[in-house]
Structure formats: structure tokens, C-alpha cells
Amino acid sequence: MDISHTTPHDFPRTAIVTGSDSGIGRATAIALAEMGCDVGITWHTDEHGAQVTADKVRAAGRHAHICRLDLRILPQAANVIDELAELLGGVDVLVNNAGTGTATPLLDIDYDTWREVFAVNVDGAFFVLQRAARRMVAAGRGGRIVNITSVHEHQPRVGAAPYCATKGALGLLTKTAALELAEHHITVNAVAPGEVATPMTGQADIDVHNQHRAGVPLGRPADAREIAAVVAFLCSAAASYVTGASWTVDGGMLQMGPMAGSHLQIEDWRRG
To answer: Is 111 a catalytic site residue?
Structure first.
């Protein structure tokens, strides 16, 4: 790609990645550092994990700063974005990765659980995005925002009603933000992973190529670095004309809908 006519905002130098103490967030922080970004790292319960991420960012030759972020405490939790932006000297990239979910059946979900998932995945993501976008607009250099959603932004899953609802909401927030922020040269996209080998799925530090998934065309879960590579692309000069899109990174999982539905012989799927 000829990028000789790109503008300075096409070359980000500072990034904030929420929930970057492990998994997709850590892999993304490292990928952005390797792309030349100093990185702000947030954690909720795993401070040691955040320190490990910071060490890996520094090993890539970039600066790293760490702050705790609790998206259940709103709207003040978003102050962390300003704190990290001050430490970094700005924010060119925001990756909204922090999230939570539940495996509770619809009829058994209590109000507090429902609200907590929405607070973190939608309310928190909104306030973080808004705070970073205000900084980007004020700086006048454009920017990149990537929201980590899920294949369940697009398709439902039994036993995950609040998770699916919030990821769908975040997907439409992505599209609306893309429209409103385009005049400021800020692109906003979503990355929608399928199954990923992370601590969240109980698969940390495994070789995904040794895992078999009959219902996934590529036959395995993703490595977090495969998700991070797509995020890094969307934050690069090569993706300067991409905005308002949702990039599914799922090994072909979503393509299996009608195939799986017409070929399943047992009803285990009803139990999630």
C-alpha cells in the first residue's frame, strides 16, 4: 500500500488498552508496542499480570504505565483514561478490551448480575471511549478506537443473555461513534473474536494447534496474538480508510450457523 500521502494521525505513538493484564489485552498491548506505541495498561484484579504486560512492552523498547480500572464505579472510573493520557503525553489509540460476562440461564439471572455486565461492557466502554475521544479531538491529530466485542455481537448464545445483549450494544455504539468522530479523523471499529485461548476461557498458555473444535472450520480456538494482529492492523496506517466495521476473527465459526443447525443430532446446545 502506498502511504506516502497519509497524515500524521496515521502513525499512532501512544495507546491505552483496557483489561491488558492478560489474554487479548496483553497480546494487543505488546503488538501495539512493537508497532511503536507507548502503552497505558489497565487491570482490575490482577496487578501482577499488568506488571508482566508492562515488562513485555518495555522489552519491545516502549514506555509502559499501569493504572487500576474498575468499570463498576462510574462515571469516575473513566478518570483513569485522563491519568494515563497525561503519563503517556496523549492518546492516539484506545482499545476498549475490558469486559465481563455470565453463564447464568435467562430465567435465573438476578438484577445485580444483569446490571454489572451492562455497567462494565456498555456503560464503562462508553465512558472510556468518550473520555479518550475528547482527548483525541482536542489534540487534533485524529486517532484510532477499537472496541473488542465478540461473535456474540452478531449471534446469540444460550446462557449468555446479558453478555450477548451488551456486545450487540457495543457493536452499534461502535458504528455511531464512527459516524460522529469521522470529521475529526478518528476511526472507530470493532473486533469480534470467537473462542480464544485466554484465562477467561480457562485456556491460558496452551498450544491452540493441539486443540480440536469440530464446529469451527479452522478446527481450533484462536491464539490471543491472532486477535491482537487484527487490532494492530486497524490502528495502523494501512487501515486509515476503515471505520464503522466489525471484524469477526473466529476461524469461520459464524459461517457455520445453518450448517450446524441442520446437522446437529443431539440437543446439548440447549444447555450452553
So the answer is: no
Tell me if 147 sits within 8 A of 125, measured CB to CB: yes
Q: Which residue has the cell 455470565?
A: 102
Rounded CA gap, 26 and 59, in Å?
Answer: 13
Can you give the pTM of this predicted structure? 0.92
- List, in order of start, the domains of the chain with CATH numbers: 9-262 (3.40.50.720)
Burial class (CB in 10 A: 0-12, 13-18, 19+), 147: buried
- In this structure, are residues 147 and 96 in contact, taking their beta carbons and an 8 Å threshold? yes
**Given 43, 127, 163, 233, the catalytic residue:** 163
User: In 3D, which of 97, 126, 108 has the Cα closest to residue 196?
Assistant: 97
Tens of pLDDT, residues 249-271:
999 999 998 777 777 778 888 88
Task: In whole angstroms, give the CA distance from residue 101 to residue 244.
Answer: 24
Which helix (H) or strand (E) segment holds residue 230: the answer is: helix 224-234
